[in-house]
Write a structure and sequence with these properties.
Elements lengths: L10 E5 L3 H9 L4 E5 L14 H13 L3 E6 L8 H13 L4 E4 L2 H10 L4 E4 L8 H9 L4 E3 L6 H11 L2 E8 L11 H6 L29 E3 L4 H7 L1 E6 L6 H15 L6 H7 L5 E2 L1 H4 L12 H8 L2 H6 L8 E9 L6 E5 L4 E5 L4 E2 L7 H8 L7 E10 L3 E2 L2 H20 L4
Parallel strand pairs: 1-2, 1-9, 2-3, 3-4, 4-5, 5-6, 6-7, 7-9, 8-10, 11-15
Antiparallel strand pairs: 7-8, 11-12, 12-13, 14-16
Helix pairs in contact: 1-9, 2-15, 3-4, 6-8, 9-10, 10-12
Length: 419
């Protein structure tokens, strides 16, 4: 699989709760996505994916150079070990690039049964110092989601001390508890956040000293600080929101891409699509005060209506982002041969033998025009070369067939299938 070129910049990691969110994330330019299966993930009420369509979803991402991380990040009871092993097996067999894990029993099974599979620590592990990272490295983890409570200075120090892959949340909901290790929902209603069923009781009108909604934090947003996070050692820029709609995913990915490229992100649209009285960067800056608190107001809700249609347009069509090089070889009495390459993988398709031209022999312009009709695919024709013996040609329909089969063969190579 050829990944998208990002000039060694940190990846943009998008949340996916269902099929439409996956399309939005990929088409808007995410470098990686994360989602759960039907069980054992921290957003069990999202649409998620089942075993039947999982491989198709992963293949869709891999063809477009997007990595897939599967969340198996809830705590697991002993009686569930057999079931969680099946979940891990399903994710690994389908071609996931990594698993995001909280429970160490899950990590132990993954190390034993799938030693080549990468594991990332879940945010619920609250990794916040070098000792935590070194311990998790000994247990087989290779990337570390740092606690959302860390400041920019602390993130930089953590990277300088360890040099490991750090994943940092850059946009999305805050949990009142440290990195989501909360039992409030479990105690009040039997719905544990550590089991993927948080009912968000912190968003209720709890009061402290007469102050209403005293547990409800605004969403964090470090989008405008992405260049600083990259310099501090962030390898992955993680967007929270697997329960959010596809337009939110589109807005967040688009804003992160702009900031990563040194452009001004559209924070007004990002705020309109979803916020709780605006955003906060209190943890990152170390300014932990009452300005970090906020609620979802009527104005916040109505603001979304004005941006949803334009955001949906961002992902309604397949963008052609993968350049390919084609070479067409025509020789007398030999099958026509089309070679297609993305720079990393090379596929070959053979067709019918070319014909002797009655009037006009094959030209490079005619062949390029026919072979360049790649609409509806993620590919576009970049470089083209024609090698044709004198006086040969072939019908446009045969060129179209060669193109379709050549691109399908390339697709199989990119997703890891048989060409």
């Amino acid at each position: 699989m050829k990944t998208r070129p990002t000039d060694n910049l940190p990846e943009i990691l998008a949340p996916v709760g269902g099929a439409e969110q996956l399309t939005a994330a990929v088409r808007c330019g995410a470098d990686a996505v994360y989602f759960g299966l039907q069980g054992f993930n921290a957003r069990r009420n999202a649409e998620n994916f089942g075993g039947d369509d999982l491989k198709d979803r992963i293949d869709y991402c891999h063809e477009r150079g997007v990595k897939v991380y599967i969340t198996v990040n809830t705590l697991v009871f002993d009686k569930e070990l057999a079931s969680v092993k099946k979940t891990v097996d399903t994710a690994c067999r389908a071609g996931a690039d990594a698993l995001i894990v909280q429970d160490l029993a899950v990590a132990a099974y993954c190390r034993e049964a799938w030693p080549g599979m990468r594991m990332f620590t879940s945010t619920q592990m609250a990794i916040h110092n070098g000792e935590g990272i070194r311990l998790m490295q000994d247990l087989g983890f290779s990337r570390f989601v740092v606690a959302r409570e860390l400041s920019l200075k602390e993130i930089r120090q953590l990277y300088e001390e360890t040099g490991v892959e750090l994943e940092v949340f850059v946009h999305g909901a805050h949990c009142m508890s440290v990195s989501g290790n909360c039992y409030l929902s479990a105690m009040i209603g039997g719905r544990s956040g550590n089991r993927g069923l948080c009912a968000q009781p912190c968003r209720l009108e709890c009061s402290v000293n007469g102050r209403a909604y005293a547990l409800s934090l605004k969403d964090l947003s470090y989008v405008e600080r992405i260049p600083e996070l990259a310099k501090a050692g962030a390898k992955s820029l993680k967007i929270e929101g697997r329960m959010k709609r596809a337009e939110y995913v589109a807005a967040a990915v688009t804003a992160c891409r702009a900031a990563r490229e040194g452009k001004k992100p559209d924070m007004e649209t990002l705020r309109a699509v979803f916020s709780r009285s605006g955003f906060t960067d209190g943890y990152l800056t170390g300014k932990r005060d009452l300005s970090m608190y906020g609620t979802r107001t009527k104005e916040d809700v109505t603001a979304a209506a004005g941006v949803l249609k334009d955001l949906a347009k961002l992902y309604e069509k397949e963008p052609q982002t993968i350049p390919v090089e084609m070479m067409l070889l025509l020789q007398p009495d030999q099958p026509a041969q089309l070679t297609v390459s993305d720079g990393e993988h090379t596929a070959v398709a053979a067709g019918e033998a070319p014909q002797q031209a009655r009037t006009q022999a094959m030209t490079a312009d005619f062949a390029r025009e026919a072979l360049g009709k790649t609409g509806g695919t993620p590919y576009y024709l970049d470089e083209f070369t024609l090698f044709a013996a004198e006086g040969l040609t072939m019908p446009r329909g045969q060129l179209n067939d060669l193109r379709r089969r050549g691109l399908e063969a390339l697709r199989q190579l990119r997703i890891g299938g048989e060409a």
